[in-house]
Design a protein that fits this description.
Radius of gyration: 19 Å
CATH architecture of the largest domain: 3-Layer(aba) Sandwich
Distance between the termini: 10 Å
CATH superfamily of the largest domain: NAD(P)-binding Rossmann-like Domain
Order of helices and strands: EHEEHEHEHEEEEEHEEHH
Number of helices: 7
Number of strands: 12
Length: 257
Amino acid sequence: MSEVAVLGCGPAGMFATEAVVQAGHTPTIFSRKIRSVIPGSQYLHEGIPGLTPQYPDNCVQYVRMGTPEGYAKKVYGDEKRRTGWEAYSMLYPSWNVVNAYDKAWERYENLIENATVDQGFLKEIVNQFDLVITTLPAPVLCNDGAHHHFAGTPFWIKTLPVPYADRNKDIVIYNGLETDHWYRWSILSGVCSIESTSPPPEWLEDDTVLEGRKAETTNCDCWEGVVRAGRWAEWQHGVLLHDAFRTAEIEVARRLG
């Protein structure tokens, strides 16, 4: 049995912890002990053994308005950018990410060591643990800011009342129309939200609006021996929430047996 450090206690961190436990190793989670707020625009594209039902909780219905070029320009400022527009054009199975995170938090909250992870802290724990898995945003662990870049796009998410008639549905609308400021509207896991990369002024004064940044690409290769699990740790477009579990599962088996 090996000792594994997991950095971060958001959904990705807790899902990675589940993989470590299932592999028979002992995890310790290092993070500020604060539960993450999960934006309404997220769901699990795959189930996570031990945290979700075997079969999907629901199916997401995708709807597209406008053009893929209009959507890409609205989100990334580049109409030629690759997006999820072409991939999502029908019904897809979905698992409730909030329920999975709640279950993982209840199961592993006691493993969280309240800590601020920085370069000095990381130097200490890489020598103390058999394996370190980070789910923290990649810039946190970068020690070469002069040469490493982290491309990303800012976004704002506003929560809306759930339409009564749609309360039991999972729906995502991709909007490539130039006439609207928003690029995605969704009902997922009972939460309705609207997303924009060019929010109207009133959004910026609304303290209920969540501001974030889409991780896209990076050339950072700091801490080569540390496993990066999840989109923000890998800082890579296309990485999904369930990938944190899968990456941890694969790397634990490969490195620790």
